[in-house]
Amino acid sequence: MSKVSLGLQGRVAIITGAARGIGRAALDRMIEEGVHVLAWDIDPAWAEEIKTIATPDTVKINAFIGDVSQSEAWQEAVKSALAQFGRLDFLFSNAGISGPALPVSRYEDADFDRVMAINARGVYLGLKHAGRHLSQQGRGVIVNVSSISGLSGGGNIFAYTASKHAVVGMTKSAAVHYAASGVRVLAVCPSPTDTEMMAYAERSVMPGDPQAARPIFTQGVPMGRYAEPEEIANVFAFLISDQASFMTGTIVPVDGGTMAR
Ligand SMILES: NC(=O)c1ccc[n+]([C@@H]2O[C@H](COP(=O)([O-])OP(=O)(O)OC[C@H]3O[C@@H](n4cnc5c(N)ncnc54)[C@H](O)[C@@H]3O)[C@@H](O)[C@H]2O)c1
């Protein structure tokens, strides 16, 4: 797929959940755009793995290991980005987990707390800590990752659905709060995307033949397929660019028509 260059060279982004899936696609897209990245993941192996990624001389990417549900980690991440790159322009709050595929009546309290801590509290902390810095400097963009599960029910991934609805609400609230200070805040809502998160969902539904589970997840998608992680990363790149300069508080489905049905 040919890509339009968006004039982002020399800017600095924090990407959470950057080691794989959508976050990794966003990291690759930022490298192509000439954006320096603090690439945050909870997986300790990421600190070594990131060294194998080729970058042009003009682009620096550094690993940050931490848990997005922890306030101290966010303070440290913002400090590190500023110390290592001298500026901060963008945040892609992407780290997330699916949690058990269960309805509310069968949900365990501890699982609910864990999903909400990573998916909702993690996004809140990013909006607070990175948002504060961006608003003080008077410019910046935050893109949060929600889901089509942030726009509709579904019944069977209870905490995930709750957390992704929370991301939508927090995005709108923070967008209004930060608008006057020059900071834009948006969310993307992907439909099923071809990453480890969906591979896990497929294995859970059909342990013997995970590939055969795909039609279950694509039947509600008018375009009839999973999204590629790059298709979400491309929308992130557009939203942080000046091409989207009058967009804030916008919740953007990237879903092959799913929410249009
Ligand atoms: N894959 C999909 O079908 C889909 C659809 C809609 C929305 N999403 C959302 O997109 C985002 C990325 O999903 P993905 O499919 O790439 O998932 P993934 O499981 O492939 O990757 C998630 C990454 O986040 C990291 N991570 C998990 N918990 C963390 C924590 N506490 N702190 C820091 N990093 C942490 C993981 O180590 C991993 O590298 C998530 O928020 C997810 O809910 C995914």
Give the gist of this structure.
This protein has 261 residues and is α/β, with parallel strands linked by helices. The protein is built from eight helices and seven strands; from the N terminus they run βαβαβαβαβαβαααβ. It has helices at 21-33, 46-49, 71-85, 109-137, 158-179, 196-205, 214-218, 229-240, and strands spanning 12-16, 36-41, 61-65, 90-93, 140-145, 183-190, 251-254.
Give an overview in words:
The protein is globular and about 50 Å long. The protein is built from eight helices and seven strands, in the order βαβαβαβαβαβαααβ. It has two domains: 12-190 and 228-253, NAD(P)-binding Rossmann-like Domain (Rossmann fold); 193-226, no CATH class. The two termini are 27 Å apart. The model has no long low-confidence stretch (mean pLDDT 97). It is α/β, with parallel strands linked by helices. The chain has a seven-stranded parallel beta sheet, with helices on both faces. Nicotinamide-adenine-dinucleotide (NAD) binds next to α1, β2 and α6.
